């Protein structure tokens, strides 16, 4: 039997699919994979203290580098859909609810057919909510999230941006977003920017 279901990872799912999904990944397809839709850092995430995150957009954005997490052959589409919904909503143990229309707080699991040789590939679509969508605003949100004392390490917006860039993700706003973070923190790198923000909070 061959694997029939995959999950498209183009943001934090690449590095952190979560224990439930990670436990059923059979292989990862990386070469030549890009999102068949355009994405941008266009949504603030409540679970990341308002940090900007990548979501599909109807205007602007770009098709970006992605990966397909191909699941074990014993994982069917329904189970994979539930796992992905729980991962994206952070609601472990909750029965999934899949709305039919995109909204500011709705996580919709959608499917691609016969994508890179995988019969069904699932991905999430969440509404954009950052207005105005500018690099300056993205940097302000990323820096503010890094100041949150209750946020686990690595879940702030500066770390999210750094990880996206490391994974080869480039959107129309990505480079300017990075420069704005460094400008606003007077840092020479994103790693330095994060250290500066944290040191100010601790001080």
Topology, pairings included?
Elements: E1 5-9, H1 19-22, E2 25-29, E3 39-45, E4 51-56, E5 67-71, H2 77-89, E6 107-115, E7 118-126, H3 135-146, H4 157-166, H5 174-185, H6 190-202
Parallel strand pairs: 1-7
Antiparallel strand pairs: 1-5, 2-5, 3-4, 6-7
Helix pairs in contact: 3-4, 3-5, 4-5, 4-6, 5-6
Produce a short descriptive summary:
By secondary structure, the protein is of the alpha+beta class. Helix content is about 30%, strand content about 25%.
Q: Specify Rg, calculated over alpha carbons.
A: 17 Å
**What is the succession of H and E elements?**
EHEEEEHEEHHHH
Major sheet details: 5 strands, mixed
What is the average of the pLDDT values? 91
What is the number of E strands? 7
Strand order of the largest sheet: 2-5-1-7-6
Strand content: 15-25%
Q: What overall geometry do the principal axes of the alpha carbons give?
A: globular
Instruction: Detail the poorly predicted runs.
Output: none
Question: How many separate domains?
Answer: 1
Q: What structural category characterises the helix and strand content?
A: alpha+beta
Distance between the termini: 58 Å
State the main characteristics:
single chain, 203 residues, alpha+beta, 5-stranded mixed β-sheet, two-stranded antiparallel ribbon, 6 helices, 7 strands
